[in-house]
Amino acid sequence: MHRAIVSTPRSQPLDLSRRRLLQAASAAAFGAAGAAVPTRHAWAQGSDKPEKEEVRIGFIPLTDCASVVMASVLGFDKKYGVKIIPTKEASWAGVRDKLVNGELDMAHVLWGLVYGVHLGVGGPKKDMAILMNLNHNGQAITLSKKLADKGAVDGPSLAKVMASDKRDYTFAQTFPTGTHAMWIYYWLASAGINPMKDAKVITVPPPQMVANMRVGNMDGYCVGEPWGHRAIIDGIGITATTTQDIWQDHPEKALGTTGDFVKKHPNTCRAVMMAIIEAGRWIDASLSNKMKMAETVADKSYVNTGVDAINQRILGRYQNGLGKTWDDPNHMKFFNDGLVTFPYLSDGMWFLTQHKRWGLLKEHPDYLGVAKQINQIELYKQAASAMKVSVPKDPMRTSKLIDGVVWDGKDPAKYADSFKVRAAPAA
Fold first, then answer.
1. From residue 88, how far is each of 1, 69, 99, 107, 340 by CA, in Å?
2. CB 351 within 8 A of CB 177
3. Could you tell me which residues are beta bridge partners of residue 255?
């Protein structure tokens, strides 16, 4: 088992100076917006004092770890009485194992991973919890440049190439029950390609995607940024679609932990949520904040890439690697007036419908019951209320995906069974 690489920027002089600069920028940003920035908060004292003040939060080197990292770097964690220790991990399987065995207190993690562990799919079974959503949008599906040169630049043209040029095609996702697996499966299926029959699907950790495509290990992959844009910079891949084009404002990463941790440390959970909500609000507050965030998370302690791989798509400036450029208003968001951070029950239920669709679940689960067990709605409401962040009235929401099918959570079993392209039923 690999060891965690603990990022402790406060012990390094260069990072300390950067931290002070960012704290000053944070205060200026909030001041300009007319928002109050209290130096203390009720959760950090008295009966609401965090039970555990030092919190190890695992993260994978991806742009969407930013609100966790910035909560630490900008000192929002201290404001709420905790110290966040961002802990860099090598793979989602490593994050899973360390959450389950208690080496990590929480993690920047895939929704589907949390739901999978809770139901014992794809690893150990343990009661899990999602405290909040961390971001919407901002992932991409990349096809190799070689495939693009043959005409495969989107779903329909990929299907045409695969039908005419018969061979084994390999696509990569980052974890079997995770978001990226579900996005690429859904996208392939919308083009009439069955990922379970027409292709080979492999699991590759996010930071290793570009290197694996470079040596020809896969024809395409789905991963979080900056590893989609990195393939374009390196000239080895093109963006066939973004995940916001598959599902606008889809749930992406969550702040996950175990059910036991929530029971033992509810005040700690609230304090961490408040620090991360505030960090997400800071990121989304201005273009300059987003640029400062990109400079910070690009550092080797975090994502370990060039700032140029992060700072364009975080602003919604996209290119596909084939000469097309566009501004996407539905780029990665961390707060968006509080709409991002709420952990909708229907979002969790959707992943279960896709797990059933692709044979990861053999029977229909209690979709709503499982979501209510995992998503800590009441705890989130308490944290949001203390911060005067508005909360949706309904924990269910309605969305139309790329194939025109509407998901509203009302009849999940019927929805899961409605797809023509799916895994073969178990014998």
1. 14, 10, 13, 10, 24
2. yes
3. 108, 132
